[in-house]
Amino acid sequence: MFLFRAINEHSENLVAVRYGKSDDLVAGDVGFEDFFSRYQAELDSIGKRPDLLLFKKADYNPDLGLDISMKDSDEIGGYVSKAIAGIEVRSSAFLINKYTEETNRVLQENIDRVISLRDNVLSEYSDLLEQKRPELIPVLQQLDDISVRSLNFQTPTWRSSARLQTLSLLLSEIKKCLKVIQKRNNLSITPKVEDLKVVHKWIQTYDVPHFYVQVFFDRIYGMSFQHILELIANPEWEDEKYFIEQDAKNQNKTTVKIPSQDGICLAGAVTEPYHHSVRKELNKGRLLFYVKFDGGEAFLDKANFETLFACSL
Prior knowledge:
About 40% of the residues lie in helices and about 20% in strands. The protein is an alpha+beta fold. Strands 1-2-3-5-6-9-12 form a 7-stranded mixed β-sheet. Strands 4-8-7 form a 3-stranded antiparallel β-sheet, with no helix packed on it. Strands 10-11 form a two-stranded antiparallel ribbon. A hairpin with a 5-residue loop joins strand 7 (about 245) and strand 8. About 25% of the residues are buried. The model has no long low-confidence stretch (mean pLDDT about 90).
C-alpha cells in the first residue's frame, strides 16, 4: 500500500498501522459465514474501521506492531482512541494525469466543434431559425466556452425541405457535442452512501478524525470526512461540487463522487509497483485469478500532508 509505506519509511513523527478488516475469505470458503457475522456485529457496535490509523510515534505500541486488523475491537479500543486519524483508502486503476489530459483534449475538441457549428448555423440558416425557432438565435449568438457547459435545448426534427433537414442535423450535432461537454469527466473520491452512517459511528465511538484518500497510479488525493459531509449537506452543490451515482462497477451501490482535484494532493508522484498474477483455489475447485502488486513508492508532499491531517509529518 503506497501510503502505508510512504508514511512509515519517511515520517519522523508518525506511524501508520493497518486496522481495517482484510480477510482473504470469499463467499463459499470455510469460515466465511462466521467472519461475515462477526464483521456485521462489529459494524453495529463500533462502526466501520478505516483501513489505516495514524499514531504519533510516542503513542505507537510496537508490541502490537504495524497490523492490528485481526485484533478484536474490545481488545484494542483504548489504543485506537489514541490515533490522530483514521484513513479509508480507495484505489483506482488510472493514471490521473493521462486521464485528465485526454478528457481535456476531448472537451476542447467538442467546444471547438460547437463554435464552428454555431457559426455555420447563424451565417447560413438564420432565416429558417427566424421562422421556426427564433428563440434559438440569441442563445446561439451568446454561445461561448463558458455557456456550452450549461446550454440545453430541444432538438427539432424538420423534414419539409432539404435546408430544414440540414439545419436539424446541425442542431442535433451541436446537442451531441454539448452532452459530451457537460458530462462529468473527473476521476473522483468515492465514499459509498451506505458507508456514511457506519463511518460516522466509528468517529463517535473513538473521537478520531476520519479521512478518505484516493490512490491513483501517479497521484494521491485526500479529503476529510467532515468536508465530505459539509458538501453533501448542501443539495444546491449536487452536480457541481459532487455527484451521486449508482456505480455499475460496484454492484450498483449509490456512491458520492467528488472530483479528486478538489481534495488535497498528498503525493504528486508515484512509482508504479511490480505486478503478478495470483491463483487461488476455492473450496469447490473453482479457480480465482487476480493481480497482486508489490513495491512502488509514493512521494509525499509534506506541506499538503500536514495541511490535511493537521499534524507534523
